């Protein structure tokens, strides 16, 4: 009887485990999976700029690349469902080239767009205008830099850190009342 129980247990365990083991006998249908891997995350210009940008930001900041706009910006509260969805759809499937955050709490400091010759196309210009206006309405500094073969670390540092320090300055800070 013990042997039958043991054999039954082994059969049941085999059935359960067979669902978790990868099988090599069936290849995916190409019609269902028509993807290929990009060779690189960044273009040559983006890789070059990223290398300089990472050196240019002061200690205490971190750079992220290819971040979805929808992960950084969201529609204002108070919109009705239709307005909310329209606002989401406008930024859907768009990304920022780079985002700079404070290292300690990962709060977002600014977005950076690297503009290459593709930004001359009308559709890209419309996208750029949308992103500029969205960032402006959200109070997110958007820095735009021309794509080029090489970058001056000092120029990038001055450009980015000036914008970061300006964004750290409180706007409309209340004035202390010195009169009693």
Structure overview:
This protein is of the alpha+beta class and 180 residues long. It has a domain at 44-167. It is built from six helices and four strands. It has a four-stranded mixed beta sheet. A hairpin with a 5-residue loop joins strand 2 (95-102) and strand 3. Helix 2 (44-56) crosses helix 6 (153-168).
Label this structure with key terms:
single chain, 180 residues, alpha+beta, 4-stranded mixed sheet, 4 strands, 16% strand, disordered C terminus
H/E order of the elements?
A: HHEHHEEHEH
pLDDT < 50 stretches: 171-180
The number of distinct helices, counting runs of at least 4 residues, comes to: 6
| Largest sheet features | 4 strands, mixed
Whole-number mean pLDDT: 84
Q: In order across it, which strands form the biggest sheet?
A: 1-2-3-4
User: What helical percentage do the residues reach?
Assistant: 40-55%
Shape: elongated
Tally of extended strands? 4
> Over all CA atoms, what is the radius of gyration?
26 Å
Structural class: alpha+beta
Strand portion? 15-25%
Distance between the termini: 95 Å
Outline of the structure:
By secondary structure, the chain is an alpha+beta fold. The protein has helices at 2-18, 44-56, 69-72, 81-91, 122-138, 153-168; strands at 61-68, 95-102, 108-115, 142-146.
């Amino acid at each position: 009887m013990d042997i039958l129980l043991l054999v039954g247990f082994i059969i049941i365990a085999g059935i359960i485990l067979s669902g978790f083991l990868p099988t090599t006998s069936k290849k995916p249908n190409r019609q269902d999976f028509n993807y290929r891997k990009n060779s690189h995350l960044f273009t040559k210009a983006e890789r070059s700029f990223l290398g300089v940008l990472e050196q240019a930001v002061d200690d205490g900041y971190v750079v992220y690349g290819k971040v979805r706009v929808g992960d950084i910006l969201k529609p204002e509260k108070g919109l009705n469902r239709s307005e909310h969805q329209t606002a989401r759809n406008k930024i859907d499937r768009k990304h920022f080239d780079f985002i700079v955050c404070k290292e300690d709490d990962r709060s977002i400091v600014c977005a950076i767009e690297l503009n290459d010759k593709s930004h001359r196309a009308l559709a890209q210009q419309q996208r750029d205008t949308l992103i500029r206006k969205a960032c402006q309405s959200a109070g997110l500094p958007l820095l735009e830099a021309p794509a080029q073969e090489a970058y001056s670390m000092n120029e990038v540092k001055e450009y980015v850190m000036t914008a970061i320090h300006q964004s750290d300055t409180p706007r409309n800070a209340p004035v202390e009342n010195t009169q009693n």
